[in-house]
Design goal:
This protein is mainly β and 124 residues long. Helices cover 0% and strands 48% of the residues.
């Protein structure tokens, strides 16, 4: 499975961005997640959509501001980010797995497929 992340950019605080993760395989059979990473820090979980869209999960830091959704016809998963804050600045990665279990959806090592990352910069 190959993943292509896009949609990053530079916005002012309070703005919005929509990230896209296009997959080479059928996203309906995959759990797809977004993680982010800043220099010198570990990659952290942002949001996940379990295979088939059965459930969505968010980190506390983005809950209420971000929405993960999928268009299985396009094999694409989106992360709509609103009310962006400077602390949201990071490289955002999408990841996918066909086997991750519910209890592990927030864990980096649960995903075997990764996209290349897209930079999000939020200025104050």
């Amino acid at each position: 499975v190959q993943l292509q992340a896009s949609g990053g950019g530079s916005v002012q605080a309070g703005g919005s961005l929509r990230l896209s993760c296009a997959a080479s395989g059928r996203t309906n059979s995959m759990t797809v997640a977004w993680f982010r990473q800043t220099a010198g820090k570990e990659r952290e979980f942002v949001a996940a959509s379990r295979r088939g869209g059965s459930s969505m999960h968010y980190s506390d830091s983005v809950e209420g501001r971000c929405t993960i959704s999928r268009d299985n016809a396009k094999n694409t998963v989106y992360l709509q980010m609103n009310s962006l804050k400077p602390e949201d600045t990071a490289v955002y990665y999408c990841a996918a797995s066909t086997t991750v279990i519910l209890s592990r959806v927030r864990q980096v090592d649960a995903y075997g497929f990764w996209g290349q990352g897209t930079q999000v910069t939020v200025s104050s």
